[in-house]
Design brief:
By secondary structure, this protein is an alpha/beta fold. The protein is 41% helix and 13% strand. Strand 6 (162-166), helix 7 and strand 7 (181-184) form a beta-alpha-beta unit.
Amino acid sequence: MAYSAILFDLDGTLIDSLPGIEYAVDYALNQMRLAPRTRSLRSLIGPPIGEIFEQIVPNPSEDQLTGLQAAFRSCYDGDGWRRTVLHANAGSTVKTLYQAGIALYIATNKPALPTRVILDELGLASYFTGVVSRDSRQPPFSSKAEMLRSIVAEHRLNPEMCLYVGDTLEDYESGVAAGISVALVPHGYGCFETRGLPPSCLPLADLADLLQFAERVEIS
């Protein structure tokens, strides 16, 4: 099937943000005088940073979570994001899809500020018609599913012609909840190479597999 619009998750799907996130998490833990991190965050990436801290800090208080998130944001938004790298074929695939006439969007849990600067730094910003983060509006979006539905509604997209590309179970469930097809990449943070893909999901061996949709789309 050829899709007229492809919506992407960001962290783990198009970019590897783990080095910068771990750097900023370690900084925040140190600033709050808490025990150093003893585990990789790879399997935790996806939800908002507050939820990640809740999983690595035993019984954190509200004040600790507030302080940790503030310290993380200061570090990550300052220079931590610069440790971000593109996944293999991400740049060339996005460019080819754009040139083929497919409308491209991003729906991500990453806040709008680092999302914008990362896309600019990596040369991807101009390819996306719309980029939606949790804090792209006030009050913030409650979920990725709500972000996806917002993109579909605002840009008057046909859900049956949309594909959401992600890397975690959250991405899969969000796409299903929004009524659009989902494809999952193997290189992200969802560990699907060991746990297996959920049902009705399009498997991607590589981001370049998306080009089969570009080859068949009709450009008006």
